[in-house]
Every structure is written in structure tokens, then in C-alpha cells.
Amino acid sequence: MVPASPIPRHLGLDWLRVGAFAILIFYHIGMVFVPWGFHVRLDTVPLVTLPMLASNPWRLLLLFVVSGYATRALATRHTSLLGFVKGRSIRLLIPLVFGIAVLVPPQSWVELVTQHGYDAPFLRFWLHDYFGFRLLAGVSLPAWNHLWFVGYLWVYTVAIALLLAIGGRWGARVQALYDRVFGGIGGLVLPLGWLLAVNMWLFVGQSETHGLIDDALAHALYLPAVLFGFAMAGSHRVLATFRRWWWPAAIVALAAYLLAADLEWRWPGLARGPHWAGLTFSATRAVQAWAAIIALIGVAERFWNHDHPWRRTLTEAVFPFYLIHQTIIVVVAYWLRGTALPLALDAVVLATVTIAGCWAFYLAGRAIPWARPLIGLRPTLRKTP
After folding, report:
1. Is 372 exposed, middle or buried (0-12, 13-18, 19+ CB in 10 A)?
2. How buried is residue 210: exposed, middle or buried, by Cβ count under 10 Å (0-12/13-18/19+)?
3. pLDDT for 258-267, tens place per residue?
4. What positions does the domain Acyltransferase occupy (predicted)?
5. Nearest 5°: phi and psi at 141?
């Protein structure tokens, strides 16, 4: 069975999703200028790490919470779980396969050329090496790179469908329990306690692999986030709690960010910092993450839950933007390596071309009926004669 009560569209969360994806795009532009691992780098500018830390702990966690809410809303529109899973599979797996086969290969080629001395042209790489299902100079091929989010979301969607199939009759009781546990102070502190446990006890010093099978850390973070958002879609109490506490949460998130930024500036990467600095940094990231999510959902609930002529277009465009943006960033950054432009101009060119390229990709794909499913859009409905 599927959840019976229809979930109204939350326009505030639509705006929040658009904003979160916009931040993600600019975050990946920033990756070209920081010492963290990325497919291509123009130069290292340590100061760029500080604004990136402002969204680093919460941007993906928030997207999974919002995706959980959207999953619940979509599930209520289907008469069967099979129809729900089929619909989500079409919307997620077709773009994922298209992305792995067509959109991601330029990223892998640029990484091999710039970091591993690979000298074959792109067409030869794509036709002869990319689909080899092996490691090439330490790079796994084929790859899904930034599209791991899509794959994980599909897996979590199937997991939710299985839970509904097995225990759907207990849904009302589970929802009532969720409301009691998270509808007040529990919604503020219990998820934070879990994040602290993950960061400081269960997975100390570990990083996400985005390899699905060997990525227990990511699943410990993102699967609970999706489930939380799924249940939040049916809970007025949790949304009211976030609405009430958004401004204290925003202050806490800002204070935690400032402390984390100070630690990062003193000991870049925390590699040579004292032990206490690493523990403090992990704790502040957890606090910042959940406090920021409370604040942002609370703001969306209180101030942004209204429509605008641009909302429909932007909410439709964010997924195609997500699919293509990193490929544009990597390819343009690779081209900029040979221009000797000032770094500030590099950043302007990179941002401008990325935004323009994303719009071109979306508008072109939207206008071509057979291309719409490839970029995650619904097929154009045929007009009745």
C-alpha cells in the first residue's frame, strides 16, 4: 500500500530545493580553486575554503531531507507501490544511465589528462577505454562522479517502497510515534545527537566513497535524512517546530560555522592541528549541519511557502542543471588552464559559462520530446486529435 493521505505541495521547500542546488553548483565551481580532491584544478586559493565551509556540512543532507519529503508527496499520487517505483525509476534511472554514458566521460578524461598523464584524445578514450569496467591510472571506469546522488536516491526510494510494502499497515502508528518523538525538542536535538555519533564515534576520520556498496558513512547520514523528510511530509508538528525555532537555530549554525572556519584557517585540513582541534571541528560540523537545516526549513515554512511565475520553471530546471553542471565546470576549467587569465577572471568566466550552459542544456532538452526523459523531465503528453 502507499500512504493514503495526499501531501500538498510545499512551495517553500520547492524554493529551498532550487536554492540548495544553486549553492551546490557554485560549490563545485569553488572546487577548482581549493586543495581538496577534484577532477581538475586551476590554482589553490586557501581563502576560498572558508565560504565553502559555510555550506559543506549541510548542503547534501538538506537535499536528502527535501527529497524524502518529495518522495512521500509522489507516493501519495500513485494507486500502487509498483506504479510509484516504476515512475521514480523512469525519472531517476534513465537520466543516470544517460549521464554515466554521455555526460560524465569528459570529466574522467580531463582528470586522467591533467593528473595522470593520459595522452589519448577524448574520442578514443570514450570509445576504447571508458567502458572498460576497470581502473585506469587509479580512476574507476565507467564512473558516475557527481551523479552518485541520483543513484543513492533511487536506492533509498526502493528501500522506502519495501518498508511500505512490509509494514504499511503500521504507517499511522509510525507517523504518530514520529510526531511525538520529533514534534518538539526531539526534532531539534535527536538528529543532532545522531550526527555527533556518526562524526565523532562511528566513523571517526572516514570519508564518503560514493561507491554505494562500500559507503557506510554516507548511508548512515543520508538514509536517515531521507526517512526523516519522508515522515516530515506528514507531520505538521515537526514543520511547526522548525518554523518556531528557525532563528535560534540560525544563530547556532552561524556560530558553529565561525568556529569551524577559524579552525580551518589555523590548521588547513586539520592535518597538523592538535587532537582537540580535530574533535572540535567534527562536532561543530554536526552542530552546523542540523542547525542550518532547522533554520532553512523553518524559513521555507514561514516565509517562502508561496508561488511565483518563475517557480515552476526553476523547479523543473534544477535536475537538468544538476546533471550537466559539473561536466561544464570541468571542461571549461580544463580549457582555462591554457589561457593564462587572472584567477578572478577565470572564476567569472567559469561561473558565467556554467550557468549559460546549464540553461542551454535544459531549454534544448525540454524542447525535444525524445530527449526529455534523458534529462529527467516528463515525456511531452500527446495532444488528443
Report:
1. middle
2. middle
3. 999 999 999 9
4. 12-362
5. -130, 140
Q: Which three cell numbers, joined as nine digits, stand for 380?
A: 511531452
Quick: pLDDT tens for 178-207.
999 999 999 999 999 999 999 999 998 899
- Three cell numbers written together for 358: 546549464
Distance separating alpha carbons of residues 287 and 299, to the nearest angstrom: 18
Which residues have a Cβ under 8 Å from the Cβ of 33 and sit 6 or more positions away? 41, 42, 43, 44, 45, 48, 343, 347
d(CA 298, CA 182): 14
Are 187 and 241 in contact by the 8 Å Cβ rule? The answer is yes
For the beta carbon of residue 45, count every other beta carbon within 10 angstroms: 15
What does the domain layout of the chain look like in residue ranges? 11-104+144-375, 105-143
What is the C-alpha to C-alpha distance for residues 194 and 220, in angstroms, rounded to an integer? 9
| pLDDT at 3 exceeding the cut of 90 | no
- For residues 338 and 379, is the Cβ–Cβ distance under 8 A? no
| SS3 assignment, position 23 | helix
From the centroid of its chain, how far is CA 385? 42
What pLDDT digit, counting tens, does each position of 145-173 carry?
A: 999 999 999 999 999 999 999 977 788 89
Q: Which residues of 110-146 are buried (b: 16+ CB within 10 A; e: fewer)?
A: bbbbbbeebeeeeeebbeebbeeeeeeeebebbbbbb
- Is the pLDDT at 382 greater than 60? The verdict is no
Kindly report which listed range (248-262, 263-277, 317-331) carries the lowest average pLDDT score. 263-277
Q: Residue 49 — φ and ψ, nearest 5°?
A: -65, -30
Whether this model's pTM surpasses 0.85: yes
CA-closest candidate to residue 335, choices 350, 356, 322, 348: 350
Tell me the β-bridge partners of 136. Answer: 139
* CA–CA distance, 246 with 250 (Å, rounded to integer): 6
For residue 264, the surrounding DSSP H or E stretch is helix 236-266
Cell readout for 25 is 553548483
Q: How far apart are CA 329 and CA 358, in angstroms?
A: 10
